């Protein structure tokens, strides 16, 4: 089994993440300064961020002989390789041509975009991305396609093509 970690974030997502991480930091500073009412927002935001990190943001895509295992800190999902009809690398322009207009449903901005991408041309796409420049598009026949960003996307796609 070969492990492909989630790709490093592009600069735009890194900047968005830093900005979003300032929010709980600001609440923490307020709590430490004696503003007790800020405990609620701090715990709420902290819970959402933990939920994203532990259950929405995958850590790796493990390619085995017969399956791909998507690994999160607190869960795993197996995709049969036989159910993947094609795998290819797409850039942002190709993605726009493929899916049309899209709206994210799930977590976005903090460490990437995770969950569903609702699109005008392809309907719902499973999305687990940490970059905005190079994606791997997994076509799955009658199932929803997947849009992911593993490290070394060329190797990932090449390995899926070999059996």
Structural account:
Helix content is about 35%, strand content about 35%. It has about 160 residues and is α+β, with helices and mostly antiparallel strands. The chain has one domain. Strands 5-9-10-8-7-6 form a 6-stranded mixed beta sheet, with helices on both faces. Strands 1-2-3-4 form a 4-stranded antiparallel beta sheet, with helices on one face. Strand 7 and strand 8 form a beta hairpin. The longest helix has 22 residues.
Short account of what is shown:
With 163 residues, this protein is an alpha+beta fold. 35% of the residues lie in helices and 33% in strands. It has one domain (2-161).
* Alpha-beta content class: alpha+beta
In DSSP terms, counting alpha (H) and pi (I) runs of 4 or more, how many helices?
A: 4
Distance between the termini: 12 Å
Mean pLDDT: 95
| Helix fraction bin | 25-40%
Topology as H/E string?
EHHEEEEHEEEEEH
Strand content: 25-35%
Unreliable spans are none
Shape: elongated
Sequence-ordered SSE layout with sheet pairings:
Elements lengths: L1 E4 L5 H22 L6 H18 L3 E4 L3 E5 L4 E5 L5 E6 H8 L2 E7 L4 E7 L3 E7 L4 E6 L6 E3 L4 H9 L2
Parallel strand pairs: 8-10
Antiparallel strand pairs: 1-2, 2-3, 3-4, 5-9, 6-7, 7-8, 9-10
Helix pairs in contact: 1-2
Features:
163 residues, alpha+beta, 6-stranded mixed β-sheet, 4-stranded antiparallel β-sheet, 4 helices, 10 strands, 35% helix
